[in-house]
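Trying the structure run again after the queue cleared.
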Amino acid sequence: MNTIRIAAALVLRESGETLLVRKRGTRAFMQPGGKLEPGEDAQAAVLRELEEEIGLKIDRALLVPLGRFEAVAANEPDSIVVADVFRVEIDQLTVTAAAEIEEIIWVLPQKAHELDLAPLTRDDILPTYLARLEAAS
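Done. Tokens:
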């Protein structure tokens, strides 16, 4: 099985909704992000991917580590992804699908299970975020 290193962002806006993307030619929704390029750290990769995929340019200081997760890759057969995931809270209400992104949606994390989700999103990222929200309240 191949291992793919990626960086992704749990993008949140003030309403509590999170941004999910669906890549062209796929069915599953996931966080924006992608593969690390040679010599690139996870923070640099996620910043680059956010700008390339959804036109979101943010400062590195806004990245809050959520964790490192491992899951079956949603779109690459016989592969697992090892993902460094960062939480990002934004007040920018408009983002635009670019590069390989076909669809963007905003959804409450508690309702995301109603969608076809990538394993990493479904089993790791959203449950971790929701558990931390619950613990904080």
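Strands lie at 2-13, 18-23, 33-35, 64-72, 79-90, 101-107. Worth checking whether this holds up in the mutant runs.
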